[in-house]
């Protein structure tokens, strides 16, 4: 059962990811009061003629151009139109929902000055499963993705609803909603802040969390097939390096391998690092993800709009700042990308040991009839290609820089690009782990009688075999790889 979430308190990374997957999100009394108070400040700023960026002025390098009250509603609408500059294929539904939820969360702090009706319109997109068509590319910072969402709110652009592509106006009509008429500041507030990177980052983090948990089980399956020495995973040995992630990984591996008859089955005094260093590498990934989780939670607890509204209706303030520059989030998401890529590197190296007869003691490439059959030979090539692509993608987006808006915006942290790269790398790692999972299951069929397996790995083997039949070059390997990646993406715990 999906629990309903409320914006009376800020979302965290886990709850935002839950909304992305379909959990309902509502406004409570406290959030409504904060939003109403913020809107009252905007109205007071307008009434008192206080200069405020994006309220009664242009934006970017046009900050010094005054916008009279009669044109402020038009400014809000035209900002949405002019900033809808996305390029490329549209984002999937979960990613779009994550961005919408993060923006609603941002407005619910009450410092943006939008109306309650505007936040309710965002939540209505989620409730009615209206998915604005949001091109993935074309954003140097954080503007274009939200602009495409804003288009649908005002009855423009396109959306997907029930698997069908329709106009924004038609999507609203089918849901019984009216196009939103934006008031002063609302166009800018719909565009601004760090909700795009925050939403996408929360999703990348949720998938990376599942990937690291899955990686422990997949590694255990491979380690058991190849034989291992238990002292490398012993609790007292691992405790010598101070890391919560190492301790958690060691405990997971001991649980996966407990009761196996393959303990010490190898003849090596010391195992290869791709086997022996699983606690150290998986543990480092866990520690890195803990930091990323903290940074995403900080973003959700923070106001990232510009300007923010403060004070009282008698003495309102519109403070121009740079909270939308989410450099901390960009750095964290670059770290998530690199950390998760290490999972793929380790997985591909274990996979190579499974299929390489020089070190595995198993049939070459796990092929049923080596020579006429190639088995997992080219699947390992595919994994190696994904590792190489991850290496290219792991270059830090936060260092890309760039100058926009006639020198007014002369620093860019590229947090949205960092989030998109993180999602791409996590997707590749899910595929690499899936290939290893399928190969390790095949190796168990060859090398380990069912009664000799650890109880936990035996359950995992059965879980895989319920979906994926043994491979004998009898069907396209790509189909098998896709099925195995889906198992990893769903999460492998103790099955």
UniProtKB/TrEMBL annotation:
Pfam families: Lyase_aromatic
Domain of life: Bacteria
Matching Gene3D superfamilies: Fumarase/aspartase (Central domain), Fumarase/aspartase (N-terminal domain)
InterPro entries cross-referenced by the UniProt entry: Aromatic_Lyase, Fumarase/histidase_N, L-Aspartase-like
Keywords on record: Lyase
Molecular function terms from GO: ammonia-lyase activity
Protein name from the UniProt record: Phenylalanine/histidine ammonia-lyase
Record organism: Novosphingobium nitrogenifigens DSM 19370
